[in-house]
Structures are given as C-alpha cells and as structure tokens.
Design a protein that fits this description.
The chain is an alpha+beta fold and 297 residues long. The protein has 10 helices and 9 strands. 33% of the residues lie in helices and 20% in strands.
C-alpha cells in the first residue's frame, strides 16, 4: 500500500487519526487531556470527570484522584508476591525460578524443561513449553522491548510508573485440563467480590466469560468473545472468593486474578484499571452496572 493510499484511508477514519496522534505525543500530553483524547478515540465519548457514572469513566477518575503508594507495590509482579504471601500464605504463590536485571543474565541451562518469563513492571509473558525448541531470539526481542517500555504512558495507569524493572522466570503451570491455565478474575469493591470473569482458551483464541457470585453466566462481551465450552464451577470456588476478599481488603476497587490448579489456588496479579478503562461493554448497560459498585466518596 502506497503512502498516499494510507493517508487517504486514514482520512476516512478520524477516530483512528486521533488515536495515532495521541499515541505519538503520549509522553508530553498532560494526564487529563491525554485520558480525554484517548478515551474519546476508543469509546467515542468524553469522560465526565466532575460526575463520572460508568465503570470506565470512574476508572479514569481514579487514575487521577486515588494515588495510594501501596498500589505500586501491588502491581509489581515481583514485590506483590511478598505482600500476598503475608496475607494468604506461601502455598498460594507461584514460585520464581530466577530474578534478573536483564534477559541476557538468564542461564537457560539451569532452568527446567518448561517455564514462563515476564517483566515485573508490565503485562505480557513468554511461555516455554519445550526448552529444546524454545525460540530464545524472539523471547529476547520481546523482553528487551518490554524492559524499555514504561506501561504508565499508554493509559496513565500511574501505579506502573515507578515499578523497578526486573526479568522474572516462574514455574510453568497448567490447570486440570493439562492444556491451559484459566484465569479467575474477581472484581472487588471496598474489599468485596461482586462479579468475575474466566479467561480461557488463551493458547487458541482467548475467551472471556462473565459471572455473578452465584456462578450464573452473564450476557457480557468485552474484549474477547464468550467460550462455546461449558465452564464448570470449581469445587473450591468459595475458597477462591474468600482469598479474593482477603487480598482486596481495604481497597476501593481492584481486580484480583487467581488460578486454580488441581484444587490449589494461586495468586495471579492485582489489576487496578481493567482494560485501562477503555474497552466498551456489550451490552452497554453493564458499564453503568459495574460503575455503580465503585463508591468515589
């Protein structure tokens, strides 16, 4: 595609132009203006900072107004484990196989056949299912790029801004299927889990399925389609809820992510701004339903 044709195509998509403009100047645009412009380019409406109503709006408000320094520790994929361990015990922590300052420090000869590599300050992982065929060149390219990025600037999720950067190698885990590791992600408000979703089929085509706390499937699509497979309520579901409740205690709003591996529950991570607060709910009414759970005052 020629440059002229690309420009013509962009002219037909003003919101896409706005999105690229905001991304290009993300390092210099002030926080509130950046959030307004990015929100509009993705959600097709502006944020009402004075009286936010929806869940996505309120997340933008919290980015500006709720800067508890504890949150920086909780989003740190290295330091958060020590915090969580004190609350629910070490048995719920996925063990580290190594902690490094760069990818080049990793001694792959000392690692097991399977493992996971991630960074302490960002999202995204590299999964090794077979050390004999593992593509270290692609892995290094991904981790080196991630180590240079400050996740804060993409969505102004301020807890990530000052997280120390480490390369983390963790034990590879799979659930009862033996094929994947489903995520149970609990939306907690003032310490109480109110809704959750299960992320599944990530090794094929990621699916998100939302549920209420009685494990009733909800008519929500956000970010990814629903699974066509039946998702079974774990026997230790109530234990998962209690763990999410304990980890969210005293926090206005946070998403607590857990894994369930053959009856043992493991901590995944804390997420304060689900999807950055910039992905629409379908049907749209769920944006306000979720928003009603956040008490700003």
């Amino acid at each position: 595609m020629t440059l002229i044709r690309k420009i013509r195509n962009l002219r037909k998509k003003p919101l896409l132009i706005l999105f690229h403009f905001v991304e290009l100047f993300r390092y210099i645009i002030p926080n509130k203006l950046y959030l307004q412009l990015r929100f509009f380019s993705l959600m097709k409406k502006f944020i009402n900072f004075k009286d936010p109503k929806t869940y996505n709006e309120k997340l933008q408000y919290l980015k500006i107004s709720d800067k508890n320094p504890l949150y920086t520790i909780l989003v740190d994929k290295y330091k958060s484990k020590d915090y969580v361990k004190k609350i629910i015990g070490e048995k719920h922590i996925i063990p580290f196989l190594g902690i490094y300052n760069s990818f080049d420090e990793i001694d792959f000869k000392k690692l097991p056949h399977q493992f996971v590599i991630k960074c302490s300050h960002n999202c995204g992982v590299v999964i090794c299912k077979d050390a004999h065929t593992f593509d270290t060149i692609s892995a290094k390219k991904f981790i080196d790029k991630t180590m240079k990025n400050n996740y804060y600037y993409y969505s102004r999720e301020w807890p990530y801004k000052n997280v120390p950067r480490k390369v983390l190698v963790e034990k590879y885990m799979v659930d009862e299927s033996g094929l994947e590791l489903k995520d149970y992600k609990f939306f907690c408000f003032n310490g109480e889990p109110k809704l959750f979703f299960i992320a599944s089929e990530r090794n094929i085509d990621t699916k998100f399925d939302f549920f209420d706390m009685q494990f009733n499937h909800l008519d929500i699509i956000q970010g990814h389609p629903n699974s066509t497979r039946q998702l079974i309520k774990p026997e230790n579901f109530e234990e998962m809820v209690n763990i999410a409740r304990a980890l969210a205690d005293g926090i206005k709003h946070v998403r607590v992510d857990l894994y369930n591996v053959n009856g043992t529950i493991y901590f995944g991570e804390y997420t304060f701004f689900h999807f950055g607060g910039m992905v629409p709910f379908i049907p749209e009414r769920w944006d306000e339903i979720f928003g009603n759970f956040i008490e700003l005052n």
